[in-house]
Amino acid sequence: MSMQAGAEFAGFRVVRRLGAGGMGEVYLVAHPRLPREEALKILPQDLSTDESYRVRFNREADLAATLFHPNIVGVHDRGEADGKLWLSMDYVAGVDLDALLRDRHPRGLPVADVVSVITQVASALDHAHGKGLIHRDVKPANILLAESGADAGGRVLLADFGIARRMDDDAGLTATNTAVGTVTYAAPEQLADEAVDGRTDQYALAATALTLLTGRSPFAGTTPGAVISRKMRGEVPRAADTDPRLAPLDRALSTGMAADPARRFRTCADFARALEAEAAYLGSGPVPPATPQPTRAQTPPPAPQTLHTPPPYGQAPAPAPYGQASMPGPAVAQPGPGPGPYGSQPSFPAFGAAPAPAKLPWQAIIAAIVLILCGIFGVLLGISGFADPEIGVPLGVLWVVSSLAGLVGAGLLFAKRTRTALIVATASAVILGATCSGLIATVLVPILLWAPKPVRAWYSE
Questions:
Q1: Alpha helices, DSSP H, located in 49-138
Q2: How far apart, in Å, are the Cα atoms of 142 and each of 138, 211, 388, 410, 422?
Q3: What are the structural domain ranges in the chain?
Q4: CA–CA distance, 432 with 441 (Å, rounded to integer)
Q5: What strands, in cross-sheet order, belong to the sheet with 24-30?
Q6: CA-to-CA distance for 459 and 461, rounded, in angstroms?
């Protein structure tokens, strides 16, 4: 039963109810001793009486309390009162992204805004993973956008760290809307109750990015059982299925949502950088509509359909606190000169990573040619050394092997777009130059591969 304003729980005085879900109720409360307000999450009684769950809750709440990051909702305290476990956290005056999509951007957020959100959340997740904590429930409803106070202007925070989740509760998969949402964003290994790590959160982050871009959750319109079945078969939804103009982003999204964790990015930040690099092809705002073509009868063309229909700049709808759906309101134009239309520039802070070029940079081509020429020269030099008593067979073999390494490095530059290819090519150049080709490969190839930003951006996967 919900508590009314003025009621007391665990020493906190209830100000108002913020929301509720499958993992309990959230209240805005006044701290019993300090002059501040906090968000208090009270877990359901059935979870609170589960001894194994209580152990996990206490352990992970203690670990979550050690997380200090600008994009993580801080955990202050935990305890038990009236037979229910509770957790006190920072109160964020803002709106969660699930409500933001539902009430203001049903067709998805501008691409630049999505990149900013994913970059901030990725930083928070990598920080937690470094501390040994996995979130396990990354989704739009757990990502908050601060809309008032010092945090206004695009600060994104990830909530619900420290709330341990029962992975063996099969009934929970269909019992509540919150659990259904969790299935939608959960990685296959999480649904199969297999070992999880930071790449599990990366899958959910990529699925969240897909939802923010399109306004539709992954596998929308299917039952939880069908979602699980499709994930186990390795299916990965594509943004291009909702709007073909988002196709350049599908490479990063499909890697982040790969069924095999080993095929995903190493870290969440790596995924965010790849998404940002591919988003550079689309510009900073919403994807522009395609130009409609007239029919043969020269009938008037249909009205163009834009990917996003955000309101003009002006007074935004009044934000609702975390957990409470915000109500859309009419946009009111601001007097006097102001910024351009929404989407012509990012709403959130921009990030400065260099975009990946459209084709293999010329510097990488020259570096590969240098490796090939030096490799061929080294092979010939090594073979001739077999018959030269001053060189001898051992030194000749060393020259041949190092030269073959240089040829392999050159081949990787053409075949792969990974940072590993860049490192291997550089190492082979150093080995090649140090053994049989002088300083040509050793000096020239590393400069060509590492100095130009387009080359580093090309080999960024």
A1: 51-64, 97-103, 111-130
A2: 6, 13, 71, 45, 37
A3: 92-279, 362-458
A4: 7
A5: 8-9, 12-21, 24-30, 37-42, 84-90, 75-81
A6: 6
Dist CA 398 CA 388 (whole Å):
14
CA–CA distance, 88 with 104 (Å, rounded to integer):
29
Q: Rounded to an integer, what distance in angstroms lies between the CA atom of residue 71 and that of residue 155?
A: 7
Q: Report the predicted TM-score, pTM, of the whole model to 2 decimal places.
A: 0.58
444 vs 324: CA distance, rounded Å: 59
In sequence order, the β-bridge partners of residue 84 are 81
- Per the listing, tokens 């809307």 go with 177
137, 151, 201, 250: the catalytic one is 137
- The token pair at 430 is 């150093």
CA distances from 226 to 157, 168, 172 (A): 31, 19, 15
> What are the tens digits of pLDDT across the range 343-387?
333 443 333 344 456 678 888 899 889 888 888 888 887 788 777
The CATH number for 92-279, chosen from 3.40.50.970, 3.40.50.1360, 1.10.510.10, 3.40.50.300, is: 1.10.510.10
441: helix, strand or coil: helix
Start-end of H helices in 291-361: none
Give residues with Cβ within 8 angstroms of 434, minimum separation 6. Answer: 402, 442
Asked if 276 and 119 count as a contact pair (C-beta separation under 8 A), the reply is yes
What would the two tokens of residue 376 be? 């061929």
The three-state secondary structure class of 107 is coil
DSSP 208-254: HHHHHHHSS-TTTTS-HHHHHHHHHTT----GGGT-GGGGGGHHHHH
Query: End-to-end CA distance of the chain, in Å?
Result: 50
Comparing CA positions, the residue from 317, 275, 10, 330 lying closest to residue 121 is 275
Distance CA 190, CA 449 (A): 39
- Lowest average pLDDT, out of 237-251, 306-320, 363-377, 433-447, goes to 306-320
Give dist(CA 138, CA 165) in Å, integer: 12
**Amino acid type, 227:** V
Tokens linked to 278: 């591919």
137 catalytic? Reply is yes
Task: Indicate the average pLDDT of the chain.
Answer: 77
User: 247: Cβ–Cβ under 8 A, 6 or more apart, which residues?
Assistant: 238, 239, 240
